[in-house]
Amino acid sequence: MDVRVGELNSLAVSLCVGLVAASGQAGAAPLLYDCAFEQIGSRGGGWIGEKVLLVHNPDDGSVEVFDPLIRHFVGSPIQGQEGKETGRRIQFNWKIHAKGLGNQSPVMNYTLTVFKDTKAAQISVEPAGYDNIWTGSGSCKTG
C-alpha cells in the first residue's frame, strides 16, 4: 500500500484542530497519538500499518483514527472508541470493513494499547469470525 506519511500528518493536524473547534469548551485538549509500528516480515498479515494516527478527546471520549489501511478501504478517518484505561495504559478500539477483496469483505477489529509512561504501543488485529490474531509493537509520540 502506498503510504504517504506527510498526508497522514497533515490530516492528523486537521483532526486535532477540528476536534478543538468542535468541543468549544474549556477542558483537556484533544491528544494526538502518532504511532509507528515496525514491519517485520509477514507479522500482522499486512493488516498492521506502519503508522497509525489517533486523536482522542478525553472530555467527551471521542476517538478518530487514520492509517494507510483506513485510507485504502474507507478514504477518510473513522471513529473509534475508548477502551480500558488504567493508571499505566489506555486502549482504543476500531473496526475496518475491508470491502473489495473479491468475494470476502472481512471486518477487522483493532485494539491499540499505549503505555502512558513510556509511550510504548502494542496493536492487535483480529478478523471477525476467525481465530487469527496479529500483533505488532511500536511507540507513539503524543502532542
Give unreliable regions as ranges.
19-24
Q: Given the C-alpha coordinates, what overall shape results?
A: globular
Please give the domain count.
Answer: 1
Q: In CATH terms, what is the architecture?
A: Beta Barrel
Helix content: 10-25%
User: What string, H for helix and E for strand, traces the elements in order?
Assistant: HEEEHEEEEE
Q: Which whole number gives the mean pLDDT?
A: 83
* Spatial arrangement of strands, main beta sheet: 1-2-3-4-5-6-7-8
What structural class should be given to the helix and strand makeup?
alpha+beta
First-to-last CA distance = 27 Å
Kindly provide the name of the CATH class. Answer: Mainly Beta
Description of the structure:
- The chain has 143 residues and is an alpha+beta fold.
- The chain has one domain (5-142): Porin.
- Helix content is 17%, strand content 43%.
- It contains 2 helices and 8 strands, in the order H-E-E-E-H-E-E-E-E-E.
- It has helices spanning 5-23, 68-73, and strands at 31-37, 51-57, 62-66, 78-85, 89-97, 107-115, 120-127, 134-142.
- An 8-stranded antiparallel beta barrel has the order 1-2-3-4-5-6-7-8.
- A hairpin with a 6-residue loop joins strand 7 and strand 8.
- The model is unreliable at 19-24 (pLDDT under 50).
What key attributes describe this structure?
single chain, 143 residues, alpha+beta, Porin, 8-stranded antiparallel β-barrel, 8 strands
What would you say about this model in short?
With 143 residues, this protein is of the alpha+beta class. The protein has 2 helices and 8 strands. A hairpin with a 4-residue loop joins strand 6 (107-115) and strand 7 (120-127).
